[in-house]
Amino acid sequence: MNLGNESSSDLAAPPGGWPAPQAAYVHVPFCRHRCGYCNFSIVAGREDLVDRFLTALDRELEALQRPGVQTVFIGGGTPTHLNPDQLCRLMRMIRQRFALASEFEWTIEANPEDVTSEKLDLIVEHGVNRISLGVQSFDDRKLMMLERGHSGHAARLAIDRTVERVANVSIDLIFAAPGESLESWRRDLDTAVSMPISHLSTYNLTYEKGTSFWSRRYHGELEPTLDSLEVEMYAAAQSTAAAAGLDHYEISNFARPGNHCRHNLAYWQGQGWFASGPGAARFVDGRRELNHRSTTTYLRRIENGQSPTAECEPISVLQYARERAAFGIRMLEGIDLNRLSTQCGVDLSSQCGEAISQSMSEGLLAWAGERLRLTSRGILFADTVASRMLG
Ligand code: SF4
Questions:
Q1: Residue 93: its H or E element
Q2: How far is CA 94 from the centre of its chain?
Q3: What is the pTM of this model?
Q4: Confidence of residue 9 (pLDDT cuts 50, 70, 90)
Q5: Residue with CA nearest ligand 1 atom 8
Q6: Residue partners of 75: CB distance under 8 A and separation at least 6
Q7: Domains of the chain: which residue ranges?
Q8: Which sign, positive or negative, has the C-alpha torsion 193, 197, 198, 201?
Q9: How far is the CA of 82 from the centre of ligand 1 (A)?
Q10: Phi/psi of residue 334, each to 5°?
């Protein structure tokens, strides 16, 4: 492959320039309480900060000068924890600060206990056309163990109520909770696919340092699920989703045809994205930037006329190319290595040659025509495959 005389380490940008962000993420850090496994950038029980936050967020967004975007994702935290007036202010702000493309995708994360008819009507009225519900389980015992604030019944009602207003509804489920059996996980999956959802995300429970689950595990109060059972649970998700007609398109994500999450595709395809709010991470003009994680620090900095950015790292073209390969391989359709190499101006077959050979020899990667993709065994070791590609 001829990638020109310039070596990848000399390039200041990929041949076509850095991708112009077409996606915007807005982080709303408020929750009713902190779930024991959560290490996101959130504050619990600080409703007194919401109005200050909205003012600060507006200032941060104003500086972007109303870019055009294809997708908006309002995540958190629990954006729907805001009261109707605050939610309305947030929706108006998004409309004012971004120029939405004609076929935009606008997602908001919501918890089942918050999706009242009033809030649903309000967000739909402003243009939200995709809702991601943090269901996690339909099993009351498991929900209690995960310290969630809703019941299984409330989750089912929330899905029905949401679908009446928004066709594109995604739900998140967690598996491998302490004490969870394969049978009870299968029941969660069966309930999920019997509901009118268009997208399903499944995540295994992880014990992150700094969470109460991590210290309870450390002190022997919580016993993690055996790896072999986790593998069976993951396989159950794959087979149940496939039988229900959901396409397994990314390691943790399944969708009905045409309902793949366009916003998340922008991350996996390295297309660049804006991100605002406490702890938000963006990729713009070849720079990765991370905002201060603490909500109060974020507020103080913006109120004092300072930047909310805590870290800024320019990335090299070579690093960008490796990341495109590493994140892209999470997509089940795999990656076209030649095309990626041309787009990035980096010969990935040689830069990642050793990593690819090793994963192929272990049966984790295989060629499917022009595309390199994870094997069914490789899907279970996707993090290993990806981290080798990152070098
Ligand atoms: S609701 Fe979600 S964001 Fe909020 S604490 Fe629980 S897991 Fe974290």
A1: helix 84-97
A2: 19
A3: 0.95
A4: low
A5: 38
A6: 25, 26, 27, 28, 107, 109, 132
A7: 19-268, 332-390
A8: negative
A9: 14
A10: 80, -170
Would the pLDDT of 35 be above 60?
yes
Q: Supply the residue whose CA is at minimum distance from atom 3 of ligand 1.
A: 77
**Residue 78 beta carbon below 6 angstroms from any ligand 1 atom:** yes
**d(Cα 24, Cα 276) in Å, to the nearest integer?**
8
Instruction: Name the DSSP class of 113.
Output: G
Read off φ and ψ for residue 169, nearest 5 degrees. Answer: -115, 125
pLDDT in tens, 347-370: 999 999 999 999 999 999 999 999
71: CA distance to ligand 1 center in Å?
Answer: 23
Helices 117-126 and 152-163: angle between axes, nearest 10 degrees? 40
Q: DSSP string covering 4-23, please?
A: -SS-GGG-SS-TT-SPPP-E
Cα distance between residue 240 and residue 179, in whole Å: 21
Mean pLDDT of 4-29: 81
Hey, what CATH topology would domain 19-268 get?
pyruvate-formate lyase- activating enzyme (3.80.30)
Query: In this structure, are strands 309-314 and 365-368 parallel, antiparallel, or unpaired?
Result: unpaired
Beta strands in the chain (DSSP E): 23-28, 30-31, 43-44, 68-76, 99-110, 130-136, 168-175, 199-204, 247-250, 253-255, 274-276, 281-284, 287-291, 309-314, 335-336, 365-368, 371-374
Contacts of 52 (CB under 8 A, 6+ apart): 299, 303
Question: Could you tell me how many residues make up the chain?
Answer: 391
Give the tokens for residue 52. 């200050």
CA distance 248 to 331: 9
